[in-house]
Specification:
By secondary structure, this protein is an alpha/beta fold. It is built from 16 helices and 14 strands. The strands form three sheets. Strands 1, 2, 3, 4, 10, 11, 12, 13 and 14 form a nine-stranded mixed β-sheet that branches. Strands 6-7-8 form a three-stranded mixed β-sheet, covered by helices on one side.
C-alpha cells in the first residue's frame, strides 16, 4: 500500500502573496467591521456637529451609528425576501464601505462651511446630499452581488440612506426644500447606478451575448459554497459557444501483485478554466472516477493550453469514464526493458525514461520560465516520434518555473523546434541507458494542505519512485499551478539526496486561482523550507515502499468532446479587461456627476 502522511504546519510564509490581482474580495470578520463602523460614524458625527455641545453624541447615535447597524441586520433578510442573497458579513461590510463614501464628503462640507458659511448649504440639506452616494453605492453592489434586478434590490439599497435621513430628522427638522432634495438626489443616484452597470456589462454582452454582472452571485456561491446551481449557471455560460474535439487519454499503470499501485493519467485536457468549473480541479475529479483500485493517482500536466479547457462537468465525466474503462482494459506489458530518467545533453528541455514500449518524456525549460505548451506542438512531437518507430511518447509538461507572462511554447517557434529535437534525443539517450530486468515501484501521498493558506490544491503532494537497472528515479507531483522560479533546482537537489535522479512537477490545477485571482504558484504562499522538507519526506516514504511491479500502458480516444476552443480564453480575458476598464472609468465619473448634480440641487434649494 502507498504511504500516506499529513504535512506539519509551517510557522510562517517565506514570501508575501501578491496583492491586487484578486478578483474576489473576502470581507473581514463582522466584529471587526462593527468596530470600524463605530469609529467612522463617530468621525462623521464630529464633522457634522462638532463639539462642544452634545449634538455630536446624538448625531453619532441616531444619524449614523444606529442606521448603519440596523442596515447591517436588515440587508440580508431583505435581499432574501426579494429573491437574492446577501450574507450578513457582506451586509455589515457594505454598510461600512458606504460610510467611507460619506466621510470625505462630510469633511469637505465642513471645511467649505467654515470658509463660506453664507454660501454652503446647511445641515438640513447635507442629509440628502450624503444619502445619494450611499444609495448609489449600495444599488451598484446589491445589483451585482445579490440579484441583477433593480426591482429586487431597490428596497435593500434604500435601507441605509432612508434610516440615516430619519435619524437626521430627529436632530434637524426637515423642510420642503430638504424633502424635495431627497427625491431628486435619490433619483439621480439611481440613474447614475443604472448607467454604470449598463456600461460595465456591455463588453461581455457584446462578445458573449450574456450578462457578466449576472454571473457575480453564482461565482461567489461556487467559490464559497460549491453550490451546484451556481456551478450549473457558470458552466452554462461556458457552454454557449464550445467547439468539438477528439481527445485522448493516455494511462501508465504500475501493477504490483496484479493490482495498480500507481496510475499516471495524461488526458489531452487543460485543468481550467477556474475554481472547480469544467476541467479545473481535474486531478481530484479523475481520481474520483478511477477510484481506490487505481492506487496512487498522478495527473501531471499534459502539454496543452486553455483551448482544451472543458466547459462543464459533463465533459469531465466523458473523460473520467474513458480513463476508468482504459484502466480495466490495459494490454499486457511490453518488453521488460527500462531506463532511468536521463537527459541527452546539458540544456535539454526534455528528459526521458523508457518502460518497454513507452517513453515517459518530461518537459521543462527551468531555470528559464516554463508554462503552457500549445497542443499543436505536442501533437506534432508525438506524431513525429511515433513515426521514428521507437517507443510511444508519454509527454508531460513539468510546469515548474513560473515567471508571469513568460514560458509559453507556440507552434512553429524556435522553442517548439528545440523541444522536438530535445525529445527525440532524450528518448534515444533513454534507449541507450535501458537495461533488461525487473522494475520496482513505490508511491506515497501527502494531504492536509489549504488552497488559501498554502496555494496547494486538494491532492497535495504525490510521489513515485521507480528502480530500474539498479538506478532509482523519483518524481514528486504537486497539485498546484506552476512553481515559483528558482525553487525547482533547490527541491531537485534535495530529492537527489534520496534517489539517483529526480524531477518536481505541478498539475497546473486552476482551482488555486479562486483565492488569488492569478496563477498563485506553489512556493508563493507555502514556505520554501517546508516545501523542500515535505518533498523530501514524501519521496523517502515512496522509496521505502519499493516493491516489484510491471508496467502497462494504454491509450484511448474520446470522440466528440466539447472544449472551449481556440481564442476563447483570450476573448474572455479581453472582455473582462474591457469590463474592468469601463467600470474603472465610469465609477468615478458617475460619482462626480452625482455629487455635482446633488450639489447644484442643494445650492438651488438652500
Amino acid at each position: 500500500m502507498p504511504a500516506s502522511t499529513d504535512r506539519p504546519s509551517p510557522q510562517a510564509p517565506s514570501r508575501r502573496p501578491r496583492r491586487g490581482s484578486g478578483v474576489l474580495f473576502r470581507a473581514p470578520p463582522s466584529w471587526m467591521t462593527a468596530g470600524l463602523i463605530a469609529v467612522v460614524t463617530l468621525a462623521l458625527a464630529v464633522l457634522v456637529w462638532p463639539p462642544p455641545g452634545s449634538a455630536w453624541l446624538e448625531g453619532w447615535l441616531f444619524a449614523f451609528l444606529a442606521p448603519a447597524l440596523l442596515t447591517a441586520g436588515l440587508t440580508s433578510p431583505l435581499a432574501r425576501v426579494l429573491g437574492g442573497r446577501f450574507e450578513f458579513h457582506r451586509g455589515i461590510f457594505l454598510a461600512f464601505t458606504a460610510l467611507l463614501v460619506e466621510l470625505p464628503l462630510a469633511a469637505a462640507w465642513r471645511g467649505a462651511l467654515d470658509l463660506w458659511p453664507g454660501v454652503v448649504p446647511g445641515v438640513v440639506l447635507l442629509g440628502p446630499f450624503l444619502a445619494a452616494p450611499v444609495f448609489w453605492f449600495r444599488e451598484l453592489t446589491l445589483y451585482g452581488v445579490s440579484r441583477p434586478s433593480h426591482g429586487r434590490t431597490l428596497a435593500a439599497a434604500l435601507v441605509q440612506p432612508v434610516l440615516q435621513l430619519v435619524g437626521f430628522s430627529f436632530l434637524v427638522a426637515p423642510t420642503e426644500a430638504s424633502l424635495a432634495s431627497v427625491v431628486v438626489d435619490l433619483a439621480l443616484a439611481f440613474v447614475c447606478a443604472v448607467v454604470v452597470l449598463h456600461a460595465a456589462d456591455r463588453p461581455i454582452r457584446r462578445e458573449f451575448h450574456a450578462s457578466g454582472v449576472s454571473l457575480i452571485r453564482p461565482l461567489l456561491d461556487h467559490v464559497g459554497r460549491r453550490d451546484e446551481e451556481a456551478t450549473r449557471k457558470l458552466e452554462a455560460f461556458f457552454l454557449r459557444s464550445p467547439v468539438w474535439a477528439d481527445l485522448r487519454v493516455d494511462l501508465l499503470a504500475f501493477l504490483r501483485d496484479g493490482r495498480p499501485a500507481a496510475t499516471v493519467v495524461l488526458p489531452t485536457v487543460h485543468p481550467g478554466p477556474f475554481a472547480a468549473l469544467g476541467s479545473s480541479d481535474l486531478p481530484r475529479k479523475l481520481e474520483g472516477f478511477l477510484g481506490p483500485e487505481a492506487g496512487t493517482v498522478l495527473v501531471p500536466h499534459t502539454p496543452c493550453d486553455h483551448d482544451l479547457d472543458l466547459p462543464s462537468g459533463t465533459e469531465v465525466e466523458q473523460l473520467g469514464s474513458a480513463a476508468r474503462e482504459l484502466l480495466h482494459s490495459l494490454p499486457p506489458p511490453g518488453r521488460a526493458r527500462s531506463s532511468p530518467l536521463v537527459a541527452p545533453y546539458p540544456g535539454s528541455t526534455a528528459r526521458a525514461q523508457v518502460f518497454g514500449d513507452v517513453a515517459l518524456v518530461v518537459v521543462s525549460q527551468a531555470p528559464a520560465p516554463t508554462d503552457d505548451i500549445a497542443y499543436s506542438v505536442t501533437d506534432r512531437i508525438v506524431a513525429e516520434l511515433s513515426r521514428d518507430g521507437g517507443p510511444r511518447p508519454f509527454l508531460v509538461d513539468a510546469h515548474n518555473s513560473y515567471v508571469e507572462d513568460e514560458g509559453d511554447i507556440a507552434y512553429g517557434s524556435p522553442a517548439a523546434e528545440k523541444l522536438l529535437t530535445d525529445a527525440r534525443a532524450a528518448i534515444a539517450a533513454a534507449l541507450r541507458a535501458a537495461r533488461d530486468g525487473p522494475v520496482e515501484v513505490g508511491t506515497a501521498r501527502r494531504g492536509g494542505y489549504s488552497i488559501g493558506r498554502d496555494g496547494i490544491a486538494p491532492l497535495g503532494l504525490r510521489a513515485l519512485v521507480v528502480r530500474a537497472g539498479g538506478t532509482t528515479t523519483g518524481y514528486v507531483l504537486i497539485d498546484g499551478n506552476n512553481l515559483v522560479a528558482g525553487l525547482r533546482a533547490r527541491i531537485v537537489q534535495e530529492l537527489e539526496r534520496v534517489v539517483d535522479v529526480a524531477e518536481i512537477m505541478t498539475t497546473d490545477n486552476h482551482v488555486v486561482h479562486e483565492v488569488d485571482g492569478g496563477v498563485n504558484p506553489v512556493g508563493e504562499r507555502y514556505p520554501t523550507e517546508a516545501l523542500v522538507r515535505d518533498a523530501r519526506e514524501i519521496l523517502e516514504a515512496a522509496k521505502a515502499d519499493l516493491a516489484p511491479a510491471e508496467v502497462r500502458f494504454g491509450s484511448k480516444v474520446v470522440p466528440a468532446v466539447r472544449v472551449l476552443g481556440p481564442n476563447y480564453t483570450a476573448r474572455l480575458l479581453t472582455s473582462l479587461g474591457d469590463t474592468l476598464a469601463m467600470f474603472a472609468n465610469m465609477f468615478p465619473a458617475a460619482l462626480v456627476l452625482l455629487l455635482a448634480s446633488s450639489l447644484v440641487v442643494a445650492l438651488l434649494l438652500r
